[in-house]
Write a structure and sequence with these properties.
299 residues; mainly alpha; 14 helices
């Protein structure tokens, strides 16, 4: 029961974070936004561990440290970076459809890495999610727009979808590889190691990036912080802790189906707060994706 509640809470907090991240994305580039929210999460988790007197360097085998660091690289450095790029290109509601790929990805990698059974329903569910992504990406042609503009928009949309899919795949890999480790590990320490790993690798990328000056300038205090700070608290502190804890206290598949509720939350919040249109194809896509997600679990 605890794992289910935490997994559902993770979905809610993540949805809140996504909406706020979209607001702050007008100032932050995907790389600087990823660094910013990782630094905020790092500070908050460190303070939490100090308050709860949780050791920062427990007596753990080197393999545990390395596995958590690898998880942070996949789940934060790569997955979150691709996520913010996709969010910028697609918008919150369309990206919510792409996010449904997370569940089939968790099931697939749980089968490959953990040896969990992969049913026919899971395979069918995965194809339904992919179909939903295709349906959700369809846009009506506007006769007033030039063909070149339509091609440009279509190319950007396709790029965003592919990058969003990569994000979900890396998130799934990042959590599945530490599933067994989490069952014998403190949640706060595990989250800290992941965030430190992700933050350090991000900073290393920026230091060697030709636009590094621009990225560091974007991190300076601005009005965007009024959205980025609460977004980081919701989406990369509260959601992250609940997500990892949910994975610890229930099975990967059960946690994933509840995490997938973020799709509904984002879809609703995007319409209310971002004024994104609820089109017929997006609505159909949401239902297709959720049915596919449920089929993948309950078949």
């Amino acid at each position: 029961m605890l794992g289910a509640v935490l997994s559902l809470a993770a979905a809610f907090f993540w949805a809140c974070g996504v909406i706020l991240f979209k607001k702050s994305g007008d100032v932050f580039s995907p790389i600087s936004l990823n660094i910013y929210k990782s630094l905020v999460a790092l500070i908050l988790i460190t303070l939490t561990m100090l308050c709860l007197n949780i050791p920062f360097f427990p007596d753990k085998p080197a393999n545990d440290w390395l596995l958590l660091a690898l998880s942070g690289f996949f789940g934060i450095t790569l997955a979150d970076l691709f996520f913010f790029i996709a969010l910028d290109k697609l918008g919150a509601s369309l990206l919510a459809i792409v996010e449904c790929l997370y569940l089939p990805s968790v099931i697939f990698f749980s089968f490959i890495i953990l040896g969990e059974n992969l049913s026919g329903g899971a395979i069918i569910g995965g194809f339904m999610v992919l179909t939903a992504v295709f349906v959700g990406s369809i846009k009506k042609k506007d006769s007033q727009n030039k063909k070149s503009d339509q091609k440009s928009v279509g190319k950007s949309l396709l790029t965003g979808i592919l990058i969003g899919c990569l994000s979900m795949i890396f998130i799934a890999i990042g959590i599945v590889i530490i599933k067994e480790l989490l069952e014998r590990t403190d949640i706060f320490w595990a989250t800290l190691v992941r965030v430190v790993s992700g933050t350090l690798t991000l900073l290393a990328i920026v230091l060697f990036h030709p636009k590094r000056k621009q990225y560091f300038v974007e991190l300076k205090f601005s009005k965007a912080w009024f959205f980025a700070l609460p977004a980081s608290i919701c989406g990369n502190y509260l959601a992250l802790l609940c997500w990892v804890a949910g994975m610890k206290y229930t099975t990967a598949s059960q946690a994933a189906i509840l995490n997938q509720m973020s799709t509904i939350f984002i879809f609703i919040f995007a319409a209310i707060f971002l004024k994104e249109k609820i089109t017929a194809n997006k609505t159909i896509a949401i239902f297709l994706a959720l049915i596919g997600a449920c089929l993948a679990i309950f078949s």
